[in-house]
# Entry
Amino acid sequence: MTLRVFSDRSRPVHLGPYPLERLARQDTPLTDGIPAPRPLDFQTPDRQDSLIGAMAEHQAMMDAIRDGLVNKARATCPDDPVERSNHLKAFGYFSDAPMVGICRLSPAAYLETPWRNPGIDRLANDLRTRQTKTLASGIDLIMADLKDSMEAPPSTIQDHSHAIVFLYDHPRAPRDGEPGTGWLTGAEAHRSCLRASETAVVLANYIRLLGWDAKAHTQTSSDVDLNRLAVAAGLAIPRDGDLVNPFIGTRFGLAALTTTFEMTPDRPLARRQPGLGPRWWLGYRTAKSAFNRDPYARRAFHMGPHPFETLKRTEAPTTFIDEPRVPRVPKRTDMFARAQFGDLGPAVQEGAKGGHYARKAAPSMAERRMLGAFVLLQDGAPGRGPRPVDAPGNALAIKAASYFLGIDAVGISRCPDWTWYSHDATGTPIDPPHPNAISMIVDQGFETMEGASGDDWISVAQSMRAYLRFSLLGGVIAQQIRNLGYSAKAHTVLDGDVLQPPLLLLSGLGEVSRIGEVILNPFLGPRLKSGVVTTDMPLDHEKPIDFGLQAFCGACNKCARECPSGAITAGPKLMFNGYETWKSDSQKCATYRITTQGGAMCGRCMKTCPWNLEGLFAEKPFRWAAMTLPVLAPHLAKLDDRLGRGGLNPVKKWWWDLEIDDKGAYRPTP
Ligand code: SF4
Ligand code: SF4
# Structure
């Protein structure tokens, strides 16, 4: 992690992490010298260990759902085209797009022959035989919609008037001899394509949910010339037969969506650009700078983006786990499953019906369609790969590949029997099939959390965005392992057979916090969602960590004070079901999250925790003191209050407060 010197607190989200507004622009796009686009091929039959092949099915799945039905009940949303542009660009940045631009769509940008990913047909064939066994509410609707999408005839974009273009920079190429990077050779463009596709497909779905037509276009399935659109949308300049972005250069991938939704376009870039100057080098009030643009510029991929190597490792987690006494419980005891079955009362059951808590806000609903589709890819039969037996080498390669794809933290541990549910969602007993667990965490993002209360209308989309990212990237890692000849399953929020918090502890990704089931990471705080890939691939294990959190949480009650449902205890830790923990009332928490009227779900505890940090150099003394001088914990917690941290920053509020009505239209909330 390269710490930033300047905060970007005063920068609206729609401007993005790069200072695009400082570039020279002109009224008409350059048309000469734009290279012809070429589809990207994800087939690597002669390289069984290439990560490109492991991405292929997920890319095909996104291509299969790049289009869909338009909500007939049109939303009541702002008419102002500038506000619309700002909103959708901010949604792109919330989804981690490095750069977003908007242009009008002219027929000159149509491809003569649209591209269609050949993997879609292979996938459609495979999916006829794949079943889900998840209790996730609303999954039946998602599966029916997916089947329709696979079989739908190609749609046209003739009446689309605008395009939103997403530019994703490539990760750096692996260095000669860099540990763990053997699978990554030549995969940079495919990784950018995969991530850009995720954002374009989600946002196209979002616009359709609002009631306007939209279709995503990727480097594997497209109706439009993405290069031409990138120039028109002010993201790139044609130069010497290539496309150049002033901050990134030529190493980037593109995706776009086209739509009937009217927006204000960006102005195209001028051919001659001013020097980027010291403000860019230092990152003056922008998240990205010349120094931190690539988190792996000075780090090996397997090390990850944060200095995990500086953490103190211990033989056992800092909270006691009485392993022989941890009972295995059925999946049916999961609080959201219980809500659906009516165990928490009729109001909660109603709130959970058909995934209403996610459907009620359009951004989360837009993310959930893809999340549901990926359930079909998270498990499968092992391939006939080379079955590498080098446990340390396999662990390095898994970590390097996960970080290359964009996971924020990865830890590897044993996967003991007591971490598995006793019965799956169908009631079938689980005989733990895998001895190893690869735990992954995804940052929920500081910026949007800063503009939110934690329990307002963007809250559910913050969770869903992180769950979706794991489903995509964890799903690719599980596929990679299967391609190599081992068994592997990604355990996602919609379908998982393991309890994730103890695995996060065993793999050194965090410590138990007062929030109870939330494991807190020293670099991301509690602002995270997790996922786990289990496997029988031989893997070296990591050790748990100790960064002083037990003393800190013992002296800080901020989350207990801020929790709107009173679910978090202000008391001491106790033993529960074999775990030493601060026992939160998960029924109160689930009830609040599912039934809250003033928003959609909740993450207020994560937002208000003093460990929810922006990643600035100025925060370094806090982190150091919190980790090394536990005696200061109560003072640091008070200081956090005095500095006004955990409050609302209106500059960062980009989403529209819309709620679904009984006709399915998204309407402004009272
Ligand atoms: S708010 Fe305080 S008590 Fe709660 S998890 Fe964060 S540090 Fe621990
Ligand atoms: S998610 Fe909300 S309701 Fe649940 S513990 Fe956190 S603050 Fe409380």
Summary: The chain has two domains: 29-116+154-172+182-270, 312-668.
